[in-house]
Design a protein that fits this description.
Elements (H helix, E strand, L loop, with lengths): L1 H43 L1
Length: 45
Amino acid sequence: MIKTNIISYVKKFLIKNFIFFVKKKFLCISNFFFYICYNNKIYLK
């Protein structure tokens, strides 16, 4: 009983962290592209 609880807890923990990690990465990437686009617009003016 305790073993399955630990496993489910670990799974939840990993899934949460994975989602958080992916969100952070995605935000970083989108900010990076926005930054490039923004700089290119300034550069093109």
